[in-house]
Amino acid sequence: MVAAVMSATESRGLRRRNWLTNVNAWLLLLPAIVLLATFTHYPILATLYHSFFSLGRSGPAAFVGLDNYSYMLDDDVFWQVLRNNVIFALATVPTSIALALLMAVWVDKKIAGRSFLRLAFFTPTVLPMIAVANIWLFFYTPGYGLLDQFLKMIGLSGHNWLGDPATVMTALSVMVVWKEAGFFMIFYLAALQTIPPDLKEAAAVEGAGRWYFFRRITLPLLMPTTLFVSINALINSFKLVDQLVIMTKGGPNNASSLLLYYIYEVAFTFWDTTYAATLTVTLITILAAVALTKFIYLDRRIHYQ
């Protein structure tokens, strides 16, 4: 009888401790949950809700269903900026990743000035977006920019790099790669330092060359980092706004306008907030679909240590 009473008491005490542990855990998570719900989940749902309404300039907003999406499909500017963004992503994402990997492999070796090289490669990452735009304006400004000055030194005429539709996207791509490659290098450098040195020693004993070791061992072990970096690089390629405001404002003739800048322009220049909400939902859907597809495709080819 006494044993039964003690067992019941211990059971109630265990349940109480579990309950207190759960309450304590949820209280610790509560600030993060509130911030996430307030600044992420609620804005997404509110944007989706507003995308189904008219602007309501002369009266209350009215439910219009998919009319905003239908208008978007007929919007030539939307298709132009979407095409620009796809080209921009194809130009910057693979280049940034390849350059980041190359720099990481280089500064991972025991070479003279390794700390200085790491600092030099990473420095563009910490610069504000506005500062980066003004730095590259100093290169691209026609007439007295550094690029035009160099061309004049070798007897060539200058060029309006940001005013020519044929060169403006290339100019912006170079700037973005310069800024982001150092950031991605840090992740690759950290991943390289987790590779056991025993693997390299075993490969050397077997007579494997450096390129063979890099291709068959290093790259597969870096695939989790590559997945993370590629998704972040893709997202970054679709959220460029600051540099466009300073450098081109989407010109010439929308040749450098990207999707997020077009959303900014629609919302804060034309004050068409419901159409901007429609474009935002489309942007989120595109990014989510591409990221999910990339994750599913690459995850099958990833070796986790």
From TrEMBL:
Keywords: Cell membrane, Membrane, Transmembrane, Transmembrane helix, Transport
Protein's membrane topology: Multi-pass membrane protein
One of the GO BP terms on file: transmembrane transport
Name the UniProt record assigns to this protein: Sugar ABC transporter permease
All copies of domain ABC transmembrane type-1, residue ranges: 82-292
Stretch forming the signal peptide: none
CDD domains: TM_PBP2
Bilayer-crossing regions: 25-45, 86-107, 119-139, 166-192, 213-235, 275-297
Pfam family, one: BPD_transp_1
Family according to the record: Belongs to the binding-protein-dependent transport system permease family.
The UniProt record lists the keyword Iron: no
Gene3D superfamilies, sorted: MetI-like
InterPro entries to which the protein is assigned, alphabetical: ABC_transporter_permease, MetI-like, MetI-like_sf
GO CC terms in record: plasma membrane
Localization annotation: Cell membrane
